[in-house]
Design goal:
The chain is α/β, with parallel strands linked by helices. It is built from 16 helices and 24 strands. Bound molecules: adenosine-5'-triphosphate and magnesium ion. Adenosine-5'-triphosphate (ATP) binds next to strand 2, helix 1 and helix 13.
Length: 510
Protein backbone atom coordinates (compact mmCIF):
# COMPACT_ATOMS: atom_id res chain seq x y z
CA UNK A 1 0.00 0.00 0.00
CA UNK A 2 1.41 3.40 -0.89
CA UNK A 3 2.24 5.84 1.83
CA UNK A 4 -0.20 8.43 0.57
CA UNK A 5 -3.31 6.28 0.53
CA UNK A 6 -4.94 7.30 3.77
CA UNK A 7 -8.62 6.93 4.32
CA UNK A 8 -10.28 9.55 6.42
CA UNK A 9 -11.13 7.37 9.31
CA UNK A 10 -13.34 8.26 12.20
CA UNK A 11 -13.18 5.83 15.09
CA UNK A 12 -15.80 5.72 17.81
CA UNK A 13 -15.94 3.83 21.07
CA UNK A 14 -19.39 3.68 22.58
CA UNK A 15 -20.28 2.63 26.12
CA UNK A 16 -17.18 0.49 26.61
CA UNK A 17 -17.00 -1.63 29.76
CA UNK A 18 -14.18 -3.92 30.80
CA UNK A 19 -13.39 -5.58 34.08
CA UNK A 20 -10.42 -7.59 35.31
CA UNK A 21 -11.49 -9.84 38.14
CA UNK A 22 -13.26 -7.60 40.61
CA UNK A 23 -11.81 -4.40 39.21
CA UNK A 24 -13.83 -2.32 36.76
CA UNK A 25 -11.08 -0.97 34.50
CA UNK A 26 -13.54 0.78 32.17
CA UNK A 27 -17.07 1.73 33.04
CA UNK A 28 -19.23 3.03 30.20
CA UNK A 29 -16.61 5.05 28.37
CA UNK A 30 -17.33 6.67 25.02
CA UNK A 31 -14.92 8.50 22.80
CA UNK A 32 -14.69 9.69 19.21
CA UNK A 33 -11.45 10.28 17.34
CA UNK A 34 -12.12 12.41 14.27
CA UNK A 35 -9.99 12.00 11.14
CA UNK A 36 -6.98 14.28 10.91
CA UNK A 37 -6.87 15.10 14.62
CA UNK A 38 -4.84 14.30 17.71
CA UNK A 39 -7.06 13.07 20.52
CA UNK A 40 -5.35 12.88 23.91
CA UNK A 41 -6.24 10.55 26.74
CA UNK A 42 -5.19 11.58 30.24
CA UNK A 43 -5.76 10.24 33.73
CA UNK A 44 -4.03 8.94 36.83
CA UNK A 45 -2.09 5.67 36.84
CA UNK A 46 -4.63 2.90 36.58
CA UNK A 47 -7.39 5.17 35.25
CA UNK A 48 -7.91 2.87 32.27
CA UNK A 49 -6.05 4.68 29.46
CA UNK A 50 -4.07 1.69 28.25
CA UNK A 51 -7.09 -0.56 28.58
CA UNK A 52 -9.17 1.76 26.42
CA UNK A 53 -6.36 2.01 23.87
CA UNK A 54 -6.15 -1.77 23.78
CA UNK A 55 -9.86 -2.09 23.14
CA UNK A 56 -9.50 0.33 20.26
CA UNK A 57 -6.51 -1.60 18.93
CA UNK A 58 -8.11 -5.02 19.12
CA UNK A 59 -5.71 -6.23 21.81
CA UNK A 60 -8.50 -6.89 24.31
CA UNK A 61 -12.23 -7.31 23.76
CA UNK A 62 -14.58 -5.20 25.85
CA UNK A 63 -17.22 -6.86 28.05
CA UNK A 64 -19.76 -4.64 26.37
CA UNK A 65 -19.91 -1.57 24.16
CA UNK A 66 -19.41 -0.90 20.51
CA UNK A 67 -16.39 -0.02 18.41
CA UNK A 68 -17.22 1.82 15.24
CA UNK A 69 -14.68 2.45 12.48
CA UNK A 70 -15.58 4.56 9.47
CA UNK A 71 -19.23 4.48 10.52
CA UNK A 72 -19.47 0.69 10.72
CA UNK A 73 -19.75 -1.42 13.84
CA UNK A 74 -16.72 -3.68 14.04
CA UNK A 75 -15.62 -6.52 16.29
CA UNK A 76 -11.86 -6.90 16.66
CA UNK A 77 -10.63 -10.33 17.66
CA UNK A 78 -6.97 -9.36 17.33
CA UNK A 79 -4.73 -6.39 16.53
CA UNK A 80 -4.64 -7.78 13.00
CA UNK A 81 -8.40 -7.17 12.68
CA UNK A 82 -7.92 -3.60 13.88
CA UNK A 83 -5.09 -3.08 11.44
CA UNK A 84 -7.26 -4.29 8.59
CA UNK A 85 -9.56 -1.39 9.52
CA UNK A 86 -6.69 1.06 9.58
CA UNK A 87 -5.97 1.16 13.32
CA UNK A 88 -2.39 0.54 14.44
CA UNK A 89 -0.86 0.83 17.85
CA UNK A 90 2.45 1.71 19.42
CA UNK A 91 2.32 0.08 22.81
CA UNK A 92 3.43 1.41 26.20
CA UNK A 93 6.14 -1.24 26.20
CA UNK A 94 7.62 -1.54 22.72
CA UNK A 95 7.01 -4.77 20.90
CA UNK A 96 9.64 -5.29 18.25
CA UNK A 97 11.56 -8.45 17.41
CA UNK A 98 15.04 -7.63 18.74
CA UNK A 99 16.97 -10.06 16.54
CA UNK A 100 15.58 -8.65 13.29
CA UNK A 101 16.68 -5.56 11.41
CA UNK A 102 14.85 -2.26 11.17
CA UNK A 103 13.54 -3.12 7.73
CA UNK A 104 12.50 -6.64 8.70
CA UNK A 105 10.56 -5.32 11.65
CA UNK A 106 8.82 -2.68 9.56
CA UNK A 107 7.52 -5.21 7.07
CA UNK A 108 7.16 -8.19 9.39
CA UNK A 109 4.50 -10.52 8.04
CA UNK A 110 3.81 -8.26 5.06
CA UNK A 111 6.96 -8.64 2.99
CA UNK A 112 6.58 -8.15 -0.76
CA UNK A 113 7.18 -11.46 -2.54
CA UNK A 114 7.79 -12.48 -6.11
CA UNK A 115 7.16 -16.08 -7.07
CA UNK A 116 7.07 -16.96 -3.37
CA UNK A 117 10.49 -15.41 -2.74
CA UNK A 118 11.22 -12.30 -0.78
CA UNK A 119 11.63 -9.39 -3.16
CA UNK A 120 14.53 -7.62 -1.50
CA UNK A 121 14.73 -4.79 -3.98
CA UNK A 122 11.04 -3.99 -3.73
CA UNK A 123 11.38 -4.16 0.04
CA UNK A 124 14.19 -1.65 0.14
CA UNK A 125 12.37 0.66 -2.29
CA UNK A 126 9.31 0.65 -0.10
CA UNK A 127 11.38 1.16 3.00
CA UNK A 128 13.16 4.16 1.52
CA UNK A 129 9.89 5.65 0.36
CA UNK A 130 8.35 5.34 3.79
CA UNK A 131 11.37 6.59 5.69
CA UNK A 132 11.68 9.57 3.40
CA UNK A 133 8.02 10.40 3.77
CA UNK A 134 8.42 10.97 7.50
CA UNK A 135 12.05 12.05 7.41
CA UNK A 136 13.49 9.23 9.51
CA UNK A 137 17.15 8.43 9.06
CA UNK A 138 17.42 4.90 10.41
CA UNK A 139 19.82 2.42 8.87
CA UNK A 140 17.49 -0.30 7.51
CA UNK A 141 20.01 -3.07 8.11
CA UNK A 142 20.76 -2.39 11.77
CA UNK A 143 19.33 -4.85 14.26
CA UNK A 144 16.63 -3.15 16.31
CA UNK A 145 18.22 -4.44 19.52
CA UNK A 146 21.08 -2.02 18.88
CA UNK A 147 18.78 1.01 18.63
CA UNK A 148 17.93 3.40 21.43
CA UNK A 149 14.31 3.70 22.48
CA UNK A 150 13.57 6.75 20.35
CA UNK A 151 14.73 4.94 17.24
CA UNK A 152 12.86 1.76 18.12
CA UNK A 153 9.76 3.89 18.32
CA UNK A 154 10.43 5.22 14.86
CA UNK A 155 10.51 1.63 13.65
CA UNK A 156 7.10 1.07 15.21
CA UNK A 157 5.76 4.17 13.50
CA UNK A 158 7.14 3.04 10.15
CA UNK A 159 5.55 -0.33 10.70
CA UNK A 160 2.19 1.30 11.37
CA UNK A 161 2.52 3.45 8.26
CA UNK A 162 3.61 0.54 6.08
CA UNK A 163 0.41 -1.23 6.95
CA UNK A 164 -1.60 1.77 5.81
CA UNK A 165 -2.85 2.77 9.25
CA UNK A 166 -5.10 5.81 9.43
CA UNK A 167 -5.38 5.96 13.22
CA UNK A 168 -2.21 5.43 15.20
CA UNK A 169 -2.55 4.83 18.90
CA UNK A 170 0.47 5.96 20.92
CA UNK A 171 0.59 4.97 24.57
CA UNK A 172 3.06 7.25 26.39
CA UNK A 173 5.35 7.54 23.37
CA UNK A 174 7.55 10.24 24.85
CA UNK A 175 7.92 8.76 28.34
CA UNK A 176 11.32 7.33 27.46
CA UNK A 177 12.52 10.09 25.16
CA UNK A 178 15.02 12.90 25.57
CA UNK A 179 14.04 16.46 24.88
CA UNK A 180 15.27 16.44 21.28
CA UNK A 181 13.71 13.10 20.48
CA UNK A 182 10.44 14.29 21.97
CA UNK A 183 10.52 17.30 19.64
CA UNK A 184 11.16 14.98 16.70
CA UNK A 185 8.24 12.79 17.63
CA UNK A 186 6.01 15.84 17.99
CA UNK A 187 6.99 16.87 14.47
CA UNK A 188 6.17 13.39 13.24
CA UNK A 189 2.77 13.48 14.89
CA UNK A 190 2.01 16.85 13.27
CA UNK A 191 3.10 15.46 9.92
CA UNK A 192 0.88 12.40 10.27
CA UNK A 193 -2.10 14.54 11.16
CA UNK A 194 -1.55 17.04 8.38
CA UNK A 195 -1.62 14.07 6.00
CA UNK A 196 -5.10 13.15 7.23
CA UNK A 197 -4.19 10.49 9.76
CA UNK A 198 -5.26 10.68 13.35
CA UNK A 199 -3.47 9.92 16.58
CA UNK A 200 -4.86 8.74 19.90
CA UNK A 201 -2.23 9.95 22.33
CA UNK A 202 -1.89 8.73 25.91
CA UNK A 203 0.43 10.97 27.87
CA UNK A 204 1.27 12.14 31.37
CA UNK A 205 2.97 15.26 30.01
CA UNK A 206 0.17 17.77 30.17
CA UNK A 207 2.09 20.47 28.34
CA UNK A 208 2.57 18.01 25.50
CA UNK A 209 -1.12 17.18 25.53
CA UNK A 210 -2.12 20.83 25.37
CA UNK A 211 0.38 21.61 22.67
CA UNK A 212 -0.37 18.74 20.32
CA UNK A 213 -3.94 17.69 20.67
CA UNK A 214 -7.22 18.93 19.26
CA UNK A 215 -9.35 17.20 21.84
CA UNK A 216 -8.66 15.78 25.30
CA UNK A 217 -10.53 13.05 27.13
CA UNK A 218 -10.05 12.72 30.87
CA UNK A 219 -10.55 9.35 32.58
CA UNK A 220 -10.78 8.79 36.32
CA UNK A 221 -11.20 5.34 37.93
CA UNK A 222 -12.32 3.84 34.63
CA UNK A 223 -14.97 6.50 34.02
CA UNK A 224 -15.20 9.31 31.56
CA UNK A 225 -14.81 12.70 33.24
CA UNK A 226 -15.15 14.79 30.10
CA UNK A 227 -13.99 15.32 26.55
CA UNK A 228 -13.22 18.88 25.54
CA UNK A 229 -11.28 20.96 23.05
CA UNK A 230 -7.65 21.20 24.17
CA UNK A 231 -7.89 24.95 23.69
CA UNK A 232 -10.45 25.08 26.49
CA UNK A 233 -8.23 23.24 28.99
CA UNK A 234 -5.16 24.20 31.02
CA UNK A 235 -2.72 22.06 32.96
CA UNK A 236 -4.57 22.97 36.13
CA UNK A 237 -7.98 22.10 34.72
CA UNK A 238 -6.68 18.76 33.45
CA UNK A 239 -5.15 17.96 36.84
CA UNK A 240 -8.40 18.84 38.59
CA UNK A 241 -10.28 16.54 36.25
CA UNK A 242 -7.80 13.68 36.60
CA UNK A 243 -7.46 13.78 40.37
CA UNK A 244 -10.88 15.08 41.26
CA UNK A 245 -9.10 17.67 43.39
CA UNK A 246 -6.55 20.40 42.82
CA UNK A 247 -2.85 20.17 43.39
CA UNK A 248 -1.24 23.49 44.31
CA UNK A 249 2.21 22.42 43.38
CA UNK A 250 3.86 19.46 41.75
CA UNK A 251 7.01 19.92 43.82
CA UNK A 252 7.26 19.73 47.60
CA UNK A 253 9.28 22.31 49.49
CA UNK A 254 12.88 21.21 49.89
CA UNK A 255 14.43 21.02 53.34
CA UNK A 256 17.41 23.39 53.61
CA UNK A 257 20.56 22.17 51.89
CA UNK A 258 22.84 20.35 54.32
CA UNK A 259 25.76 22.37 55.70
CA UNK A 260 29.26 22.00 54.34
CA UNK A 261 30.01 20.15 57.55
CA UNK A 262 27.32 17.50 56.95
CA UNK A 263 28.83 14.09 56.50
CA UNK A 264 29.62 12.93 53.01
CA UNK A 265 27.78 9.75 52.08
CA UNK A 266 28.89 9.22 48.49
CA UNK A 267 32.27 10.25 47.33
CA UNK A 268 33.52 9.29 43.90
CA UNK A 269 36.94 10.50 42.83
CA UNK A 270 38.42 10.20 39.35
CA UNK A 271 36.01 7.50 38.29
CA UNK A 272 36.63 6.00 34.88
CA UNK A 273 34.23 3.39 33.58
CA UNK A 274 32.56 2.62 30.24
CA UNK A 275 31.10 5.95 29.09
CA UNK A 276 32.49 7.75 32.16
CA UNK A 277 35.67 9.72 31.69
CA UNK A 278 36.93 10.93 35.03
CA UNK A 279 34.08 11.95 37.31
CA UNK A 280 34.34 13.43 40.80
CA UNK A 281 31.16 13.74 42.81
CA UNK A 282 30.06 13.89 46.40
CA UNK A 283 26.60 13.66 47.88
CA UNK A 284 26.09 14.61 51.52
CA UNK A 285 23.69 13.15 54.01
CA UNK A 286 20.38 14.93 53.57
CA UNK A 287 21.24 16.25 50.16
CA UNK A 288 19.37 15.76 46.89
CA UNK A 289 21.68 16.07 43.92
CA UNK A 290 20.21 16.21 40.44
CA UNK A 291 22.20 14.74 37.58
CA UNK A 292 21.26 16.38 34.30
CA UNK A 293 22.53 16.10 30.75
CA UNK A 294 21.49 14.99 27.31
CA UNK A 295 20.99 11.39 26.31
CA UNK A 296 24.45 9.87 25.91
CA UNK A 297 26.07 12.37 28.28
CA UNK A 298 27.12 9.57 30.59
CA UNK A 299 24.52 9.89 33.35
CA UNK A 300 23.19 6.36 33.11
CA UNK A 301 26.71 5.09 32.55
CA UNK A 302 27.81 6.71 35.81
CA UNK A 303 24.89 5.14 37.62
CA UNK A 304 25.74 1.75 36.14
CA UNK A 305 29.29 2.06 37.39
CA UNK A 306 28.14 3.07 40.89
CA UNK A 307 25.81 0.10 41.22
CA UNK A 308 28.23 -2.41 39.74
CA UNK A 309 26.45 -2.97 36.46
CA UNK A 310 29.61 -1.89 34.70
CA UNK A 311 33.24 -2.03 35.75
CA UNK A 312 34.93 0.92 37.44
CA UNK A 313 38.32 0.91 35.71
CA UNK A 314 39.97 3.44 37.97
CA UNK A 315 39.14 5.92 40.68
CA UNK A 316 37.74 5.51 44.16
CA UNK A 317 34.17 5.26 45.43
CA UNK A 318 33.38 5.49 49.13
CA UNK A 319 30.13 5.29 51.08
CA UNK A 320 30.24 6.92 54.52
CA UNK A 321 34.00 7.01 54.16
CA UNK A 322 34.33 3.27 53.53
CA UNK A 323 35.80 2.31 50.16
CA UNK A 324 33.37 0.18 48.20
CA UNK A 325 34.07 -2.01 45.23
CA UNK A 326 30.72 -3.00 43.84
CA UNK A 327 31.21 -5.67 41.22
CA UNK A 328 27.62 -6.67 40.62
CA UNK A 329 24.25 -4.99 41.13
CA UNK A 330 23.43 -7.62 43.75
CA UNK A 331 26.36 -6.32 45.83
CA UNK A 332 25.31 -2.68 45.66
CA UNK A 333 22.75 -3.02 48.40
CA UNK A 334 25.27 -4.48 50.81
CA UNK A 335 27.34 -1.37 50.26
CA UNK A 336 24.34 0.82 51.04
CA UNK A 337 23.48 1.82 47.46
CA UNK A 338 19.96 1.30 46.09
CA UNK A 339 18.80 2.07 42.58
CA UNK A 340 15.38 2.75 41.16
CA UNK A 341 16.20 1.77 37.57
CA UNK A 342 15.36 3.67 34.43
CA UNK A 343 13.73 0.93 32.42
CA UNK A 344 11.21 -1.10 34.34
CA UNK A 345 10.86 -3.66 31.60
CA UNK A 346 14.51 -4.53 31.21
CA UNK A 347 15.84 -3.85 34.64
CA UNK A 348 13.65 -5.10 37.27
CA UNK A 349 10.05 -6.05 36.98
CA UNK A 350 9.31 -9.77 37.38
CA UNK A 351 5.89 -9.83 35.68
CA UNK A 352 4.55 -13.14 36.94
CA UNK A 353 5.54 -12.67 40.58
CA UNK A 354 3.27 -10.82 42.94
CA UNK A 355 3.49 -7.11 43.67
CA UNK A 356 4.64 -7.94 47.18
CA UNK A 357 7.38 -10.27 46.00
CA UNK A 358 8.54 -7.70 43.49
CA UNK A 359 8.79 -5.14 46.27
CA UNK A 360 10.82 -7.32 48.63
CA UNK A 361 12.99 -8.94 45.98
CA UNK A 362 16.13 -7.02 46.89
CA UNK A 363 15.70 -7.07 50.64
CA UNK A 364 14.70 -10.68 51.34
CA UNK A 365 17.74 -11.16 53.53
CA UNK A 366 16.25 -8.64 55.97
CA UNK A 367 13.22 -10.86 56.51
CA UNK A 368 15.09 -14.13 56.67
CA UNK A 369 16.18 -16.08 59.67
CA UNK A 370 18.23 -19.25 59.36
CA UNK A 371 17.58 -19.28 55.64
CA UNK A 372 13.79 -19.03 55.94
CA UNK A 373 11.87 -16.00 54.84
CA UNK A 374 9.52 -14.68 57.52
CA UNK A 375 6.52 -14.12 55.26
CA UNK A 376 4.57 -12.22 57.91
CA UNK A 377 7.32 -9.72 58.38
CA UNK A 378 7.86 -9.52 54.64
CA UNK A 379 4.17 -8.76 54.11
CA UNK A 380 4.06 -6.10 56.78
CA UNK A 381 7.12 -4.29 55.49
CA UNK A 382 5.96 -4.53 51.89
CA UNK A 383 2.47 -3.36 52.79
CA UNK A 384 3.72 -0.22 54.49
CA UNK A 385 6.04 0.87 51.74
CA UNK A 386 3.57 0.00 48.96
CA UNK A 387 1.13 2.28 50.67
CA UNK A 388 3.55 5.13 51.07
CA UNK A 389 4.49 4.87 47.40
CA UNK A 390 0.77 4.90 46.54
CA UNK A 391 0.87 1.69 44.54
CA UNK A 392 -2.59 0.87 43.22
CA UNK A 393 -3.07 -2.87 42.89
CA UNK A 394 -6.06 -5.15 43.36
CA UNK A 395 -4.08 -6.85 46.14
CA UNK A 396 -0.43 -7.14 47.19
CA UNK A 397 -0.72 -10.70 45.94
CA UNK A 398 -1.80 -9.69 42.42
CA UNK A 399 0.74 -10.46 39.70
CA UNK A 400 2.93 -7.56 38.76
CA UNK A 401 1.76 -7.90 35.14
CA UNK A 402 -1.75 -6.86 36.18
CA UNK A 403 -0.57 -3.41 37.28
CA UNK A 404 -0.73 -0.35 35.08
CA UNK A 405 2.62 0.95 33.82
CA UNK A 406 2.98 3.77 36.33
CA UNK A 407 2.13 1.53 39.24
CA UNK A 408 4.85 -0.91 38.24
CA UNK A 409 7.30 1.98 38.40
CA UNK A 410 6.16 2.76 41.93
CA UNK A 411 6.75 -0.84 43.02
CA UNK A 412 10.37 -0.55 41.91
CA UNK A 413 10.61 2.52 44.06
CA UNK A 414 9.22 0.60 47.01
CA UNK A 415 11.80 -2.11 46.39
CA UNK A 416 14.68 0.34 46.63
CA UNK A 417 13.35 1.90 49.82
CA UNK A 418 12.95 -1.50 51.47
CA UNK A 419 16.69 -2.05 51.11
CA UNK A 420 17.33 0.66 53.69
CA UNK A 421 20.09 2.31 51.65
CA UNK A 422 22.49 5.15 52.53
CA UNK A 423 22.53 6.38 48.96
CA UNK A 424 19.35 6.25 46.94
CA UNK A 425 19.79 6.63 43.19
CA UNK A 426 16.64 7.29 41.22
CA UNK A 427 17.09 7.10 37.46
CA UNK A 428 14.17 8.89 35.76
CA UNK A 429 12.00 8.20 38.83
CA UNK A 430 8.72 9.57 37.53
CA UNK A 431 8.76 8.33 33.97
CA UNK A 432 5.23 7.19 33.15
CA UNK A 433 3.93 8.27 36.54
CA UNK A 434 0.84 10.48 36.82
CA UNK A 435 0.99 13.97 38.36
CA UNK A 436 -0.59 12.97 41.65
CA UNK A 437 1.75 10.05 42.18
CA UNK A 438 4.63 12.09 40.93
CA UNK A 439 4.10 14.40 43.83
CA UNK A 440 3.97 11.36 46.13
CA UNK A 441 7.33 10.17 44.79
CA UNK A 442 8.87 13.62 45.22
CA UNK A 443 7.54 13.70 48.76
CA UNK A 444 9.20 10.36 49.40
CA UNK A 445 12.53 11.50 48.02
CA UNK A 446 12.43 14.61 50.17
CA UNK A 447 11.46 12.52 53.19
CA UNK A 448 14.41 10.22 52.58
CA UNK A 449 16.74 13.19 52.39
CA UNK A 450 15.28 14.58 55.62
CA UNK A 451 15.96 11.24 57.26
CA UNK A 452 19.63 11.63 56.34
CA UNK A 453 19.94 9.66 53.13
CA UNK A 454 21.96 10.92 50.23
CA UNK A 455 19.76 11.11 47.14
CA UNK A 456 20.96 11.22 43.55
CA UNK A 457 18.25 11.90 40.96
CA UNK A 458 19.00 11.33 37.30
CA UNK A 459 16.45 13.00 35.09
CA UNK A 460 15.92 14.27 31.58
CA UNK A 461 13.04 16.36 32.83
CA UNK A 462 14.64 19.72 33.55
CA UNK A 463 11.69 20.94 35.58
CA UNK A 464 12.06 17.91 37.79
CA UNK A 465 15.78 18.51 38.26
CA UNK A 466 15.16 22.15 39.12
CA UNK A 467 12.21 21.50 41.41
CA UNK A 468 13.87 18.79 43.40
CA UNK A 469 17.60 19.39 43.74
CA UNK A 470 19.77 21.17 46.28
CA UNK A 471 22.58 20.95 43.78
CA UNK A 472 22.69 20.06 40.10
CA UNK A 473 25.54 18.37 38.28
CA UNK A 474 25.43 18.51 34.52
CA UNK A 475 27.21 15.86 32.49
CA UNK A 476 28.43 15.92 28.95
CA UNK A 477 30.70 13.49 27.12
CA UNK A 478 31.23 11.33 30.19
CA UNK A 479 32.35 14.25 32.37
CA UNK A 480 30.74 16.64 34.81
CA UNK A 481 30.70 19.94 32.93
CA UNK A 482 28.70 22.07 35.32
CA UNK A 483 27.77 22.36 38.96
CA UNK A 484 24.90 24.61 39.98
CA UNK A 485 23.52 25.53 43.37
CA UNK A 486 20.78 27.80 44.71
CA UNK A 487 19.53 30.49 42.38
CA UNK A 488 21.94 29.37 39.67
CA UNK A 489 19.84 26.26 39.12
CA UNK A 490 17.97 27.45 36.04
CA UNK A 491 16.79 25.97 32.80
CA UNK A 492 19.21 28.09 30.84
CA UNK A 493 22.27 27.28 32.95
CA UNK A 494 21.56 23.57 32.81
CA UNK A 495 21.11 23.59 29.05
CA UNK A 496 24.22 25.68 28.57
CA UNK A 497 26.30 23.19 30.52
CA UNK A 498 24.66 20.28 28.75
CA UNK A 499 25.30 21.58 25.24
CA UNK A 500 28.47 23.60 25.47
CA UNK A 501 31.97 22.38 25.77
CA UNK A 502 33.18 24.10 28.92
CA UNK A 503 36.76 23.81 27.67
CA UNK A 504 35.92 26.29 24.94
CA UNK A 505 34.77 29.85 25.21
CA UNK A 506 31.33 30.15 26.75
CA UNK A 507 30.34 32.79 24.22
CA UNK A 508 30.52 30.23 21.46
CA UNK A 509 26.77 29.71 21.38
CA UNK A 510 25.81 33.10 20.08
N1 LIG B 1 -4.18 -7.75 32.44
C1 LIG B 1 -4.73 -7.22 33.53
N2 LIG B 1 -5.12 -7.99 34.57
C2 LIG B 1 -5.68 -7.44 35.67
N3 LIG B 1 -5.89 -6.13 35.84
C3 LIG B 1 -5.52 -5.31 34.85
C4 LIG B 1 -4.91 -5.80 33.65
N4 LIG B 1 -4.65 -4.75 32.84
C5 LIG B 1 -5.06 -3.64 33.51
N5 LIG B 1 -5.60 -3.98 34.71
C6 LIG B 1 -6.15 -3.05 35.70
O1 LIG B 1 -7.02 -2.16 35.03
C7 LIG B 1 -6.90 -0.83 35.53
C8 LIG B 1 -6.57 0.13 34.41
O2 LIG B 1 -5.26 -0.14 33.95
P1 LIG B 1 -4.59 0.62 32.73
O3 LIG B 1 -3.35 -0.12 32.39
O4 LIG B 1 -5.60 0.81 31.66
O5 LIG B 1 -4.24 2.03 33.40
P2 LIG B 1 -3.54 3.32 32.74
O6 LIG B 1 -4.52 4.44 32.79
O7 LIG B 1 -2.97 2.97 31.43
O8 LIG B 1 -2.41 3.62 33.81
P3 LIG B 1 -0.84 4.10 33.62
O9 LIG B 1 -0.86 5.58 33.54
O10 LIG B 1 -0.20 3.67 34.91
O11 LIG B 1 -0.28 3.40 32.45
C9 LIG B 1 -5.84 -0.90 36.63
O12 LIG B 1 -6.49 -1.00 37.85
C10 LIG B 1 -5.07 -2.18 36.31
O13 LIG B 1 -4.51 -2.74 37.47
MG1 LIG C 1 -1.00 2.77 30.74
Amino acid sequence: MAVESVRDLQVELLGIRKHFGGAQALDDVSLRVAAGTVHALVGENGAGKSTLSKVCAGVISPDSGVVRAGGEDVVFRSPRDALARGIATIAQELALVPGLTVEQNVFLGAEPRRGGLLDRKALRRRYDELAEHVGFDLVPDSPVSSLRTADQQKVEILRALSSGASLIIMDEPTAALSREDTELLHDTIRLLVSGGRSVLLVSHFLSEVLELSDEVTILRDGRLVRTSAAADESEASLIDGMLGRSLDSVFPGLPPAPAESASIVLSAVGVHAPGVRGVDITVRAGEIVGLAGLVGAGRSELVMALVGASRVRSGEVTIDGEPVDVRAPSEAMRSGIALVPESRKEQGVVPLRSVEENATLASLATFSRAGFVDRRQERAAAGAVLESTRVRAASPRAPMSSLSGGNQQKVLFARALLCGPRLLIADEPTRGVDVGSRRAIYDLLVEQARAGLAVLVVSSDIEEVIGLSHRVLVMRGGRVTGELTGADITDENILTAAFLDTDTNKGADS
